[in-house]
Design goal:
Shape: globular
CATH class: Alpha Beta
Strand content: 25-35%
CATH superfamily: Ribosomal protein S6/Translation elongation factor EF1B
Structural class: alpha+beta
Number of domains: 1
Distance between the termini: 68 Å
Number of strands: 4
CATH topology: Alpha-Beta Plaits
Radius of gyration: 23 Å
Order of helices and strands: EHEEHEH
Helix content: 25-40%
Strand order of the largest sheet: 2-3-1-4
Length: 145
């Protein structure tokens, strides 16, 4: 039996912040959690990403995820301090049954796009029809036998 509940805390920081400032926000959140008896299991910075819609004049935001193992009161204090920080434009904390081992889905997605593994989507040419099945044998003259 676990002694403390598990949470995922994601916050979006303003687009005009430098990466060092975003890292400082994550460190501040970590300090709030550890000072109140919790632990941060993992911190992921997802980078500057486009928003679906504008939030407080921001079209993009720096995304940060914290996997937290802490008593419920710690989450209340973290959210209270996050709410009054004008550099944070959105945040969300959810209770989870367990933390994801290894990199999150967002980090795996970032690695794929950096490597250029886009699959067969988009672009010009290529096989637009999907799986056409096995190719039939043809004679040398190009006609079916």
């Amino acid at each position: 039996m676990r002694d403390m509940p598990l949470y995922e805390h994601v916050f979006l920081a303003r687009q005009d912040l430098a990466q060092a400032q975003v890292d400082a926000l994550a460190e501040n959140a970590t300090k709030i959690i550890t000072d109140n008896g919790g632990t941060v299991v993992k911190t992921e910075t997802w980078g500057l990403r486009s928003l679906a819609y504008r939030i407080a004049k921001n079209r993009k935001a720096h995304y940060v995820l914290l996997d937290v193992d802490a008593p419920p009161g710690v989450v209340a204090e973290l959210e209270r301090q996050t709410q009054i920080n004008e550099d944070v434009i959105r945040y969300m904390t959810i209770k989870v049954d367990g933390h994801e081992a290894g990199p999150s889905a967002m980090m795996r997605r970032n690695e794929r796009s950096e490597r250029g593994d886009r699959g067969d989507r988009g672009g010009r040419g290529g096989d637009r029809g999907g799986d056409r099945g096995p190719r039939r044998d043809r004679d040398d003259d190009g006609f079916d036998s």
